[in-house]
Amino acid sequence: ETGVTQSPTHLIKTRGQQVTxxxxxxxxxxxxSWYQQALGQGPQFIFQYYREEENGRGNFPPRFSGLQFPxxxxxxxxxxxxxxxxxxxxxxxxxxxxxxxxxxxxxxRLTVT
Amino acid sequence: xxxxxxxxxxxxxxxxxxxxxxxxxxxSAIYNLQWFRQDPGxxxxxxxxxxxxxxxxxxxxLNASLDKSSGRSTLYIAASQPGDSATYLCAVxxxxxxxxxxxxxRLSVLP
Lengths: 113, 111
Description:
The complex is a heterodimer of chains A (about 110) and B (about 110).
Chain A: E1 5-7, E2 10-13, E3 19-24, E4 31-37, E5 44-50, E6 53-57, E7 64-68, E8 74-78, E9 87-94, E10 103-104, E11 108-112
Chain B: E1 4-7, E2 10-14, E3 19-25, E4 32-38, E5 44-51, E6 56-59, E7 62-67, E8 72-77, E9 86-94, E10 98-101, E11 105-110
Parallel strand pairs in B: 2-11
Antiparallel strand pairs in B: 1-3, 3-8, 4-5, 4-9, 6-7, 7-8, 9-10, 9-11
């Protein structure tokens, strides 16, 4: 059974650019959630995808968007990057509409300069 | 809106001590509660998941309890070791869509 993987590990972007982060869910899981974790804080919910449809969204602007593919892998896209977008982005997969046990990937560290 | 708090924010103990980390949540209508460990700059590792029908779960030196009526959970770590040094986070579901996390307790176990 493969765990949750994320790519890339680290990324440095310039303000105003666009970025795409990727996540492969754990085998058998149909739900993927994305979280943003600023330094010293707990993760904040961005959005969740269940069977390729967005299934809930946190308090993030529309420039944060996502996709889920038929194999349940997912992408997080962020447009018009701002300095405050610098954070660790975490992907979690689960098997029951996001309320079952969640398994997290190693995260992508995004730095916006 | 579900809110989660954790105390203490940071804890430093000598090796071998037993310790308790606390988690409080505002909405007691939860399906479950999950405790995680996070090493610096890394992802989250699931430690224990307690279902709403359970009162506690144990894994090795870790024991987590859940009191839904009072909106509290505790994580008990027995015989702490330097390798236990990390940030510990608790999380509860937010109306079935996602998890709400506490800010974490940063634990340092000194050799």
